[in-house]
Specification:
alpha/beta, TIM Barrel, eight-stranded parallel β-barrel, two-stranded antiparallel sheet, binds N-acetylmannosamine-6-phosphate, Aldolase_TIM, carbohydrate metabolism, NanE
């Protein structure tokens, strides 16, 4: 368990995900993205669903952080049920990522204990607020990620990463991962300056559709 935490310290984790309907939505495409991440220097990849965990696991020799997104009325929930966590472990995940916002089927302390005792893996708790982060850390989470800040009613809405949350959690002694809307090298440097243990970058690296749309929107042709 300690080795994954050591391996990720000071590093870039690349989130290799593609939603239903996206041209990259296939385990093979996710595996190719994971290969790019590995060649580029990533210390781990973050992957959605057991089938993508299997694909990434066989493609790269890096720790695989597994999650399983489930569609709810307002947003995707991250691994909100125990069975989903267990299936990720079966698929070869090295870390289980799950939300610690109170919307999972287990209280966070029970989830952390079961991930440790039954799966033998570390838990990455995805949170939206400082209170959720410190609670998850006290409850035994190994990593606390700012993943959900900006996606819940109780967190600030912004197009920028929530580096203030990263700084507050790190200052409180929480092993904090900066995740969500990091898109530039300045964001990455600022996250580490704020005390991050690691950073996760997804869209800005692995979603050419989103990147194309953003740059297209800056063209005269987009106004036609
Ligand atoms: C909110 C939510 O469901 N976030 C998901 C968590 O796994 C992913 O959709 C994000 O891509 C990931 O967090 C990385 O963030 P960004 O793509 O902004 O670099």
């Amino acid at each position: 368990m300690g080795s994954v935490l050591e391996a990720t310290a000071g590093g870039l984790v690349v989130s290799c995900q593609a939603p239903e309907g996206h041209p990259l939505r296939s385990p093979d495409a996710i595996a190719r993205l994971a290969e790019c991440a590995a060649l580029g220097g990533a210390v781990a990849v973050r992957v959605n669903s057991p089938e993508d965990v299997r694909a990434a696991r066989s493609a790269v020799d890096l720790p695989v952080i597994g999650l399983h997104k489930v569609r709810a009325a307002d947003r995707y929930l991250i691994t909100p049920a125990w069975d989903l966590a267990a299936a990720l472990a079966d698929a070869g995940a090295d870390v289980i990522a799950a939300e610690a916002t109170g919307r999972g089927d287990l209280p966070i302390a029970e989830l952390a204990a079961r991930v440790h005792d039954e799966l033998g893996l570390p838990l990455m708790a995805d949170v939206a607020t400082f209170e959720q982060g410190t609670a998850a850390w006290s409850a035994g989470a190994d990593l606390v990620a700012t993943t959900l800040s900006g996606y819940t009613m109780d967190s600030p809405q912004s197009t920028e990463p929530d580096l203030d949350l990263v700084a507050r959690l790190a200052l409180a002694g929480v092993r904090t991962v900066a995740e969500g809307r990091l898109a530039t090298d300045s964001h990455v440097r600022a996250a580490f300056a704020a005390g991050a243990h690691a950073v996760v970058v997804g869209t800005a690296i692995t979603d050419p559709l989103a990147l194309t749309r953003r740059l297209y929107a800056a063209t005269p042709a987009s106004a036609r």
